[in-house]
Amino acid sequence: MPPDATATKKRLLTAAYHEFAQFGLAGARVDRIAEAAQANKRLIYVHFGNKDDLFDLVVANSLEDLAQAVPFTADDLPGYAGSLFDYLLDHPQVLRLTGWSQLERPDAPPAQVEAYRPKIGAISSAQQQDLVTTEVTPADVLALLLGLTTAWANASPALRSLADQPPWDPERLRIHRAAMTAAVRALTTPPSTSGDENTARPPTALTP
Amino acid sequence: MPPDATATKKRLLTAAYHEFAQFGLAGARVDRIAEAAQANKRLIYVHFGNKDDLFDLVVANSLEDLAQAVPFTADDLPGYAGSLFDYLLDHPQVLRLTGWSQLERPDAPPAQVEAYRPKIGAISSAQQQDLVTTEVTPADVLALLLGLTTAWANASPALRSLADQPPWDPERLRIHRAAMTAAVRALTTPPSTSGDENTARPPTALTP
């Protein structure tokens, strides 16, 4: 390989990340990616295969970066949801990429299945230790947690515009984040830790 | 207008609904819509304006159909979430359309803002009657409820594949729906109706 192949690949991946996040798989243009990376278009095919392959790689890399930055803590799912919320706010491209992927690549790549499997296992272990409710299956816990975590970003702009503050105002995000992590707590806390079989609420020192 | 103009418009809208749900705004082809509707492509421009206008109309119509089919019940938000879940399962195109719209039409059309406004008002009234918790703002209640309702459909296929049953198996959906509506109940029930303590209230920090 020529000495600058690594640098060129890196530039191409960065350009592809922005192009795919903006335009999706069908809408992305390989020419624009090559131009933004100041590289020959042919090098995309040499290094990464076709456009679909490059898209899948970009999505997989972005999810791997996310997993590195936000460790999964099955024993503190509200904390995980809060950290994930913060990360996704700072990296709006990640939700755009997964959104396009959902619409344009509906089959589950085996690598992604393997990425989810340890999380399901960790939730299952946390359930056995009575740290997470057993009333909800691990897959449902994780799906509902992710639904809550991405609710504000995925809400219609029309709905977001009806909050008391501008949708991306820090105070607005603080209020939403607190409601969201409380909802994750209510969803995941075992009823038995409260001494009340019906409650979804953890015990609080203030309860009279 | 020629006598069959209404029938032609209806066929064009149906064809556009399926084309946009499948391919999104950028990916849709006006030629394919005209062909599927057995109509002249020129009639699309005559009746509906450009492709963006047609897309916005199709999304707005599909949300109006949904609102007609699933009345908003602020005094029974878990029931609303369950009915909405059922409707979206039966009409997967609606979530695809809103997904594309989110990615490709990021600005809130004023008509959609007006469609959300009464829901926010109804939640606010329900809060005043102590039917919904006041600890979460109306916009956050609705956004988090929608996040929960769409969590399974929006989950990664990789995550869905790790449930104990096939993702769209009736038993799987029944289990998920029960967990989802319970989470909406925990999110929305006022702490004061604590006959059953089934609340979403977060643990209050004890500040000295």
Automatic annotation (TrEMBL), chains A, B:
Short name of one Pfam family: TetR_N
Region annotated Disordered, chain positions: 186-208
Protein's UniProt keywords contain DNA-binding: yes
Keyword presence, DNA-binding: yes
InterPro entries: Homeodomain-like_sf (IPR009057), HTH-type_TetR-like_transc_reg (IPR050109), HTH_TetR (IPR001647), Sco4008_C (IPR041467), Tet_transcr_reg_TetR-rel_C_sf (IPR036271)
Annotated DNA-binding residue span(s): 29-48
HTH tetR-type domain: residues covered: 6-66
Lineage of the organism: Bacteria, Bacillati, Actinomycetota, Actinomycetes, Kitasatosporales
Protein name: TetR family transcriptional regulator
Gene3D superfamilies registered for this protein in UniProt: Tetracycline Repressor, domain 2
UniProt entry keywords in alphabetical sequence: DNA-binding
Highest taxon above the source species: Bacteria
